[in-house]
Design a protein that fits this description.
Pfam families: Aldolase
Shape: globular
Distance between the termini: 36 Å
Low-confidence stretches: none
Protein name: Bifunctional 4-hydroxy-2-oxoglutarate aldolase/2-dehydro-3-deoxy-phosphogluconate aldolase
Structural class: alpha/beta
Enzyme class: lyase
Mean pLDDT: 97
Helix content: 40-55%
Subunit structure: Homotrimer.
Number of strands: 9
Largest sheet: 7 strands, parallel
Oligomer: single chain
Strand order of the largest sheet: 3-2-1-9-8-7-6
Order of helices and strands: HEHEHEHEHEEHEHEHEHH
Family: Belongs to the KHG/KDPG aldolase family.
Length: 223
């Protein structure tokens, strides 16, 4: 069962403005990355379902995080079908994210009041997702469907939309400022937040500092 309710999840996403996205087959690496992000101010984290036995890693990571990072809201990403969504919800996922929009996932999440954020690449998909009860929709891959200008133009007719963008998001001031100024609700960020060299070297402090800087850029752009 989710430790955080739907309102808490959505509030944290909007307040911090950033959701790190990460997967590693090594549970200890995942713990270090999670803690590094938490120490850097991150409060919402997406563990992606991208490897064999990923759900087993998630289950252990979620139990560990409840003690080590008590304010961290952990969810599952790269969820493309309803059975997988149900599996992660049973393991305590506080939210579900997908690269695509699957109408069968929405009722599974809605019955448990777990936010479902599907990947959308058009105004029609975003509108359809909202009709299914999705409070936050993910524009993905954001850099390929039009970048910040797409979000800005989308929010003209659909000004009530809460948009997360993933893909082509980097932890530098110019990039984050452009996305925030376009009107996004939050950004999702993966590989550029977690360079392979830092992971291989166990340079967790670098990840913490990168999170601190990125969150600072977001707050500055909002101001």
């Amino acid at each position: 069962m989710a430790r955080f309710n739907k309102i808490q999840v959505l509030t944290a996403m909007g307040k911090t403005g950033m959701v790190p996205v990460f997967f590693n087959k090594d549970l200890d690496v995942c713990k270090h990355v999670l803690k590094a992000c938490y120490d850097g101010g991150v409060r919402v984290f997406e563990f992606t379902n991208r490897g064999d036995f990923a759900h087993e890693i998630f289950g252990e990571l979620n139990k560990w995080a409840a003690e080590a990072c008590p304010e961290l809201i952990l969810g599952a990403g790269t969820v493309i079908d309803a059975p997988t969504a149900a599996l992660y919800i049973q393991l305590g996922a506080n939210f579900i994210v997908g690269p695509n929009l699957n109408p069968e996932i929405a009722p599974v999440c809605n019955r448990r009041l777990v936010p479902y954020t599907p990947g959308c690449g058009s105004v029609s998909e975003i509108s359809d997702a909202q009709a299914l009860g999705c409070d936050v929709t993910k524009v993905f891959p954001a850099g390929n469907v039009g970048g910040p200008s797409f979000v800005k133009n989308l929010l003209g007719p659909l000004r009530w939309s809460n948009v997360m963008v993933t893909g082509a998001v980097a932890p530098d001031q110019e990039n984050l400022t452009a996305w925030i100024k376009s009107g996004v609700f939050c950004v999702g960020m993966g590989s550029k937040l977690f360079p392979k060299d830092d992971i291989a070297a166990g340079n967790w402090k670098a990840i913490t500092q990168r999170c601190v800087q990125a969150l600072g850029y977001i707050q500055s752009a909002r101001a």
